[in-house]
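hey m, so remember when u said the tokens were messed up on ur end? i reran from scratch. heres the input so u can diff it against urs
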Amino acid sequence: MVQQHDPRYDDSEYQYAGFWVRLVAQLVDSLIFVLLTLPLMYYQWQQIANMPIEEIPVYSPMDIVINLVFAVAVIIFWVKKGATPGKMLFGLQIRDAKTGAFISVPRALLRYFIGYTVSALVLGLGFIWAGFDAKKQGWHDKIAGTVVVKRIR
């Protein structure tokens, strides 16, 4: 399915969002995530507190659930709102690089699961790349065909 250009998106009203504002927005999202999952993490810590170190699992079912819920929430925010709460706080939006529309579910899945993995592989260089790229795209943006923009008008 080919997406049409989003009529609400006027290129002249936006500029590419740079590395630092994106980093701070991500830190806000991380803080929100930690605060929301703290009760679950506390419960998990109580479960393993008295275990011998060799019996403590690397990943528990709770870890998997927490990370999966976070991934689903991020993808829903990207598709429905064009941004996570941290990005919304700074007026940033994730858009399709060609059409300017909010991204589709397949594009969001590609950006999150493949793009973020590739961006993180080499000491996070794929994320830092956004600070040097003309369109301020990290590797995950390039892989998914997305840009992060900020309204200037």
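this time it looks ok to me. The chain is about 55% helix and 10% strand. if urs says something different then somethings off w ur setup not the seq
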